[in-house]
Design a protein that fits this description.
heterotrimer, A alpha/beta, B mainly alpha, C mainly alpha, A: alpha/beta, four-stranded parallel sheet, 13 helices, 15 strands, B: mainly alpha, 2 strands, 73% helix, 3% strand, globular, disordered C terminus
Chain lengths: 401, 293, 336
C-alpha cells in the first residue's frame, strides 16, 4: 500500500478547510490587558543585536528606571515587571515580540523603537496596550488614528526647525546644505527647514549601509555650502567630519542630536575637530561636565550604576531610555486605573512634571500626543556644550502644530 | 570641471577598497571555487585588530605586519577547519558555508569589540595635498599606493613564485597537480591566507573613510562582488579594474545623474554590470569556456 | 516491492502527522504562537519557491527576498490605495510577482551560476531604496500599516487563528502543486535543464521557455508568501526586505534540503524560529551578540553533518533503519 504524497497533502488541505469552517474550539479576539493587583507588566522590543545594537542602551536605561521605582516601593505598592525582547531591527521579529508581550506576558504598556515600532503600532492599539515609542518620526504623532501610541522622542521636524530658525537669524546669508540618511531623517529635515523658513541649497541622501561619504562631502564643498546639517548613522559621523577637516572644509555644522555621544563621537574627533560643532539638544549630555552637578543627572548616574546592567552612564541613549521610562511612570502614578485608558488620560494631562535630564526640566503634554518640545541650541567648545541663545519651544515658535 | 576631477579622485580612492576586496575574492574563487561572502568580515577583523593595537599604543608600522600575519593565519585556519569539511560539495553548499562565516565572524566582532564605532587614522597622517582646487588627503594617496603595491605583489607572486605557480596548477587541474606531487589542500589554505591578507589591506585602507564598525565592509563587499563579476571571476586584473571603475561610476552617478542622489546611485554600476554580463557572461577580462555546464 | 514502498509510506505518514499537528496547533497554543506559525507558513512558501528554482532547475537566486517584498508591497498598495479586499489583492500580487519573476528570469537565459546569483542579489539590494524613493505609493521608509484580516462572521476563530489556517491551506496547495508538477515530465525537463542544459536543448526541451516560466512561477510563489506574510504582520516596510532576508531564505533552503519540499518547511523553521530561540536561550540582553554566532555555528554544523539538508538527513536515517531500501528519484543528487 503506497500513500502518495499528493493524497496526503490533499487531505491536509481539506482537513484544514474543514477545521477552519467548523472552528470547533476556536476563540474570538481578546480585549485589553488590565490588572488591578499584582505586577504591572511593561514589554519592550529593541534591537539588541545587529547594526542597531547600540540602541539597546535605551532599553537598559529604561530597565534601570523601572528597577529604581521598584526599589522605592513601586507604583502604589505594585512592582513593574519589565520584559524586553531583541528584534534585531527586523519588523517581523518586532511583530512577534509584541504579540508575545500582549498575548503571553499580558503587558499593559510597551516600549518600542524606530521603524519596527511603527509597524507594531496598529496591533498595540487594537489590543489597547499603552505604547511609548522611542522614535522621532512625525508619523508617530498620529494620536487621532492610534490613540494609545505616544512618541517619547520629540518630532524630528522640531529639531531641524529649531536649527533652521537659528541659522536664519544668525547666518541669514548662508548657503545651507543637508546630508542625511534616506529615511525619515531626510523627510524630517526637509519639513523642518521649510517650517523654519530656510531653503537648503543642496539636500543629499545616502543609504544607511553607505559608509564612505567622501563623494557627498566633495559635492557640498564644491557647491559652497557653509552651513551643514549632518544626520548620518553614528558610525559614519566621525569619518565624515574627519575627512571634512582634512580637506580644510569647515562649514558651520549641526549634528543630529541622537548621534551625540562622547565615547563614539566627540572624543574620537578630538577637540581640534569637535570644537565648533553645533546641535539642538532636548536632553542633557550626561558626559558633559556642565551637568555634572545637576541633581537629576547625579541621581541618574547613581541609578544606572546600580541597576543599569552594565550600561554606561555617559551614554546619552541610556539617559534617553531612563527619562522615557520616567515619563511612563509619571503617567502610571497619575493614572486612575492601571490600564491603557488610564495611562492614556494621565499621559495626555501631564503638566509641568519634572523629568531627569530634560532641557527645560519638565514635561508638558502637547500636540501629537508628545511631551517634549523644548530645545537648546548649543555649540561645543572642545570639552563642553555652550548655550547659543535661549531655550526654544517648538510649539510656541510655531514649528509644531 | 574641478568638481568632476575631485569626484573622480574620490571615486578612485573608494574604488581602491573595492578593487582590493575584489582581488581577494577572485583569489579564493580561482583557488577553491567559493564565492566568499565572509571576505568583508575578515577584512573587518583586520581593521579592528589594527585599531586595538593602535589603542594599545603600538606604532602603526609595527602593528600592520602583525595584523597582516594574523590575517593570513586566520584565513588558513578558516579554510582548514571550517571550509575543508565541505570541500567538493555543491556550489550552493559552499555559498551557504561562506554566508554562515559572514554571520559568525560579524557576530564575533561585536562580541569581542562591542558595537561602538571607532575611528582609525592609519599610518599616512592627516595632511591634504592640493593640485589647484582638487584636494587629495595623505590617507587617500597612501591607501591607493598600498593597494597598488599589493596588487603588483600578488601578480608577481602568481607569475614567478613557486607557491604561486603551484596554486595556479591546483586551480587549473587539481588531479594533475596531485600527480606532480602538489598537495591541493595546502595550496587552497595558502590561497585563503593570501586572500585574507589582501582583504585585510582593503579593510585597513577603508578604515579612515568608513570608520571601524561591524558593518564597515558591507557595501564594499557587494561592490567587490560586482567588480569581480564585471571583470570576470577568473581574472585578477579584471577584478581590480572593475573595482576602480565601480568606485568612479558610483561617485559620478550620485553627483551628475539628476534625481538619482546617493541612495539610488548604486543602480548605475549595477545596471552596467547587468548589461556587461548579458553581453559577455564571463565578464570583460575572463575567457570563459564556450559552454558552461 | 514492499521495500520500495516503505519509504514513500513512511514519508506519507510523516506528512500526515505534520498536517495533523499543523491543523490542531492553533486550537492549542495562544495567539502569539499562532502568529509565529503564520510567519512560518508564509516564509515556507518563499523557501519552497527557491527549492523549485534553485533545487530543481539549478538557477541560483541570492535575491529572492526581492520577490517576497514585491508581493508584499503589491498586496499592500492594492489594499490600502486601491481599496481591494485582501483575497483579491493577494491573487493580483501573485500575478505581479509572476511578471517580476519573468523579467528577472530574462538574464538567466544567458547567465547561470554565480553571475546569476549576483544579478539576483542586486535586485534585492536595490528594492529597499527604490521603495523609499516612491514614497507616495509605498509609504516611504516607514512603510504602510495594513488592516488586520477579520474572521468572517459565523466562524468561531480569532483573527490570528483564521488567518493562520488560511496560510496553511495556501501553503498546502502550493506544495501539492509543486510536488505534482515536479514529479512528471516537467520535473524531468527541469532536472535536464539543471544537470545537462545543452543536452536538454538538443533533446527538444524548450530550455528558454522553461527557464523563464520557472523563474516566473518561483517569483509568483515567493510573492504570494510575501503578500500573506505582510497581512500577518499587518504592515509593509523596507526594513523587512533587506538583502539579508534573501540570504536567510537561501541558507534556509540549503539547510532544509534544496531539493526537498519538506526541506522548505525545515528551512522556514530555521529562518523564523531559530534567531528567537537562540536569543531566548543565550540569556539577557548582554549576551545578545552571541545570537548570531550561535546561529552561524548551527548552520555550519548542519552543512557538515547533513550536506544534502536536514530533510535529506531524515531520508538517510530512514534508509539506515530499513536495510535494502532503495532511495528512489526523490533522493537529492549532488549538484555539479
Amino acid at each position: 500500500m503506497t500513500i502518495t504524497r499528493r493524497s496526503a497533502l490533499a487531505s491536509l488541505l481539506s482537513v484544514t478547510l474543514v477545521g477552519a469552517l467548523v472552528g470547533a474550539c476556536g476563540r474570538t479576539d481578546e480585549t485589553a490587558n488590565a490588572s488591578s493587583s499584582g505586577e504591572i507588566v511593561v514589554g519592550g522590543s529593541f534591537p539588541m543585536s545587529g547594526p542597531y545594537a547600540p540602541i539597546s542602551a535605551v532599553s537598559k536605561g529604561a530597565a534601570a528606571y523601572f528597577a529604581k521605582v521598584n526599589a522605592e516601593g513601586g507604583i502604589n505598592g505594585r512592582k513593574i515587571k519589565y520584559e524586553a525582547y531583541d528584534d534585531g531591527y527586523d519588523p517581523g521579529r518586532a511583530a512577534a515580540n509584541i504579540r508575545r508581550g500582549v498575548d503571553q506576558d499580558k503587558a499593559q504598556a510597551f516600549l518600542t523603537f524606530g521603524v519596527p515600532g511603527e509597524v507594531v503600532r496598529p496591533y498595540l492599539n487594537q489590543n489597547k496596550v499603552f505604547n511609548v515609542a522611542y522614535s522621532g518620526s512625525t508619523q508617530m504623532s498620529q494620536v487621532d488614528q492610534f490613540p494609545y501610541s505616544h512618541a517619547w522622542w520629540p518630532d524630528l521636524t522640531a529639531e531641524t526647525g529649531v536649527i533652521a530658525q537659528y541659522v536664519g537669524k544668525e547666518f541669514p546669508a548662508a548657503k545651507v546644505g543637508v546630508l542625511t540618511l534616506n529615511n525619515d531623517l531626510a523627510d524630517a529635515a526637509a519639513a523642518g527647514f521649510k517650517a523654519g523658513g530656510v531653503t537648503p541649497a543642496v539636500s543629499l541622501k545616502v543609504p544607511p549601509s553607505q559608509q564612505d561619504n567622501t563623494a557627498q562631502v566633495a559635492q557640498l564643498k564644491a557647491a559652497g555650502v557653509d552651513v551643514l546639517y549632518l544626520a548620518l548613522g553614528a558610525p559614519q559621523m566621525v569619518p565624515t567630519l574627519k575627512y571634512m577637516a582634512q580637506i580644510g572644509y569647515r562649514p558651520k555644522t549641526f549634528v543630529y542630536s541622537i548621534t551625540i555621544n562622547h565615547t563614539s563621537l566627540l572624543d574620537p574627533l578630538t577637540p581640534a575637530i569637535s570644537k565648533g560643532l553645533n546641535a539642538a539638544l532636548w536632553l542633557d549630555d550626561p558626559a558633559d561636565p556642565r551637568w555634572a552637578n545637576d541633581p537629576g543627572i547625579q541621581a541618574y548616574k547613581k541609578d544606572i550604576a546600580t541597576y543599569g546592567e552594565g550600561a554606561s552612564a555617559d551614554d546619552m541613549l541610556a539617559l534617553n531610555g531612563f527619562a522615557g521610562a520616567a515619563a511612563l511612570v509619571s503617567a502610571m502614578k497619575a493614572a486612575k486605573t492601571q490600564d491603557a485608558d488610564g495611562y492614556n488620560t494621565a499621559w495626555n494631562a501631564l503638566k509641568d512634571v519634572p523629568a531627569p535630564g530634560l532641557i527645560g526640566g519638565t514635561l508638558n503634554a502637547g500636540p501629537g500626543g508628545r511631551l517634549v518640545y523644548r530645545y537648546q541650541v548649543v555649540e561645543f567648545d572642545g570639552s563642553s556644550w555652550q548655550n547659543r541663545g535661549p531655550v526654544q519651544d517648538a510649539v510656541q515658535s510655531g514649528l509644531i502644530k | 570641471m574641478i568638481e568632476l576631477l575631485q569626484q573622480v579622485v574620490n571615486g578612485l580612492s573608494t574604488g581602491c577598497v573595492y578593487a582590493a576586496l575584489a582581488l581577494a575574492i577572485s583569489v579564493i574563487y580561482q583557488g577553491a571555487g567559493i564565492l566568499n561572502f565572509a571576505q568583508g568580515e575578515m577584512a573587518t577583523v583586520a581593521a579592528y585588530s589594527a585599531w586595538s593595537l593602535d589603542a594599545l599604543g603600538w606604532p602603526m608600522w609595527a602593528a600592520l605586519p602583525v595584523v597582516f600575519a594574523g590575517a593570513a593565519v586566520l584565513g588558513a585556519v578558516i579554510e582548514r577547519l571550517l571550509v575543508r569539511p565541505v570541500e567538493g560539495a555543491s556550489v550552493l553548499a559552499l555559498v551557504t558555508v561562506s554566508t554562515a562565516l559572514l554571520l559568525g565572524i560579524n557576530g564575533l566582532v561585536t562580541v569581542l569589540w562591542g558595537t561602538d564605532p571607532h575611528s582609525l587614522a592609519g599610518p599616512f597622517g592627516t595632511k591634504a595635498l592640493s593640485a589647484g582646487e582638487v584636494t587629495v588627503t595623505s590617507q587617500q594617496l597612501g591607501g591607493a599606493a598600498t593597494v597598488l603595491v599589493v596588487m603588483a605583489a600578488v601578480g608577481l607572486f602568481f607569475r614567478f613564485s613557486d607557491v604561486g605557480l603551484r596554486m595556479k596548477a591546483v586551480s587549473q587541474n587539481a588531479d594533475s597537480a596531485v600527480l606532480l606531487g602538489i598537495r591541493p589542500g595546502r595550496m587552497r589554505a595558502a590561497g585563503w591566507a593570501l586572500a585574507a591578507v589582501v582583504g585585510a589591506v582593503a579593510g585597513f585602507v577603508a578604515a579612515p573613510a568608513t570608520g571601524v564598525n561591524p558593518e564597515m565592509m558591507q557595501t564594499p563587499l557587494l561592490m567587490a562582488f560586482a567588480a569581480a563579476a564585471l571583470g570576470g571571476f577568473g581574472s585578477r586584473v579584471g577584478a581590480v579594474v572593475g573595482g576602480l571603475a565601480l568606485g568612479v561610476l558610483t561617485a559620478l552617478a550620485a553627483r551628475y545623474i539628476p534625481g538619482l542622489n546617493g541612495d539610488l546611485a548604486l543602480s548605475v554600476p549595477f545596471g552596467v554590470i547587468f548589461l556587461v554580463l548579458l553581453l559577455r557572461p564571463h565578464g570583460l577580462f575572463s575567457r570563459g569556456s564556450a559552454v558552461r555546464a | 516491492m514492499t521495500t520500495m514502498a516503505t519509504i514513500p509510506r513512511a514519508k506519507a505518514l510523516a506528512w500526515a502527522a505534520m498536517a495533523v499537528v499543523a491543523i490542531v496547533a492553533p486550537y492549542v497554543v495562544d495567539d502569539y504562537q499562532v502568529f509565529q506559525l503564520a510567519r512560518l507558513t508564509t516564509t515556507a512558501m518563499a523557501v519552497a519557491s527557491l527549492v523549485l528554482l534553485t533545487g530543481w532547475s539549478g538557477q541560483v537566486s541570492a535575491g529572492h527576498g526581492a520577490f517576497f517584498g514585491v508581493g508584499a508591497y503589491a498586496a499592500a498598495i492594492l489594499i490600502v490605495k486601491a481599496g481591494l479586499p485582501w483575497p483579491v489583492a493577494v491573487v493580483l500580487a501573485t500575478l505581479v510577482s509572476f511578471l517580476a519573476g519573468l523579467l528577472a528570469g530574462l538574464p538567466a537565459l544567458r547567465i547561470r551560476g554565480i553571475s546569476l546569483a549576483l544579478i539576483t542579489l542586486v535586485l534585492a539590494v536595490l528594492l529597499p531604496p527604490l521603495v523609499v524613493r516612491f514614497d507616495g505609493l509605498t509609504g516611504g521608509s516607514t512603510g504602510m500599516p495594513l488592516p488586520p484580516v477579520r474572521t468572517p462572521a459565523g466562524i468561531q476563530l480569532s483573527g490570528a487563528q483564521f488567518f493562520y489556517l488560511v496560510t496553511l491551506a495556501v501553503l498546502a496547495a502550493v506544495l501539492v502543486l509543486l510536488a505534482t508538477v515536479c514529479r512528471g515530465r516537467t520535473g524531468r525537463s527541469l532536472a535536464a535543464l539543471r544537470d545537462q542544459p545543452v543536452m536538454a536543448a538538443t533533446a527538444g526541451v524548450p530550455t528558454a521557455k522553461l527557464s523563464l516560466l520557472v523563474f516566473g512561477a518561483s517569483g509568483a510563489i515567493a510573492g504570494l508568501g510575501g503578500a500573506l506574510n505582510a497581512l500577518a504582520i499587518q504592515s509593509v516596510v523596507p526594513d523587512s526586505y533587506t538583502f539579508t532576508v534573501s540570504l536567510a531564505l537561501l541558507t534556509g533552503a540549503v539547510v532544509g534540503g534544496i531539493r526537498s519540499w519538506a526541506g522548505a518547511l525545515i528551512g522556514a523553521v530555521f529562518v523564523v524560529y531559530l534567531p528567537q530561540v537562540i536569543s531566548d536561550s543565550v540569556g539577557d540582553s548582554l549576551a545578545s551578540h552571541w545570537t548570531q554566532v550561535v546561529y552561524a555555528v548551527l548552520l555550519l554544523l548542519v552543512l557538515y553533518l547533513a550536506p544534502q539538508g536536514l530533510a535529506g538527513l531524515g531520508t538517510r536515517l530512514a534508509a539506515v533503519r530499513i536495510p535494502g531500501a532503495r532511495l528512489t528519484s526523490t533522493t537529492p543528487r549532488r549538484q555539479s
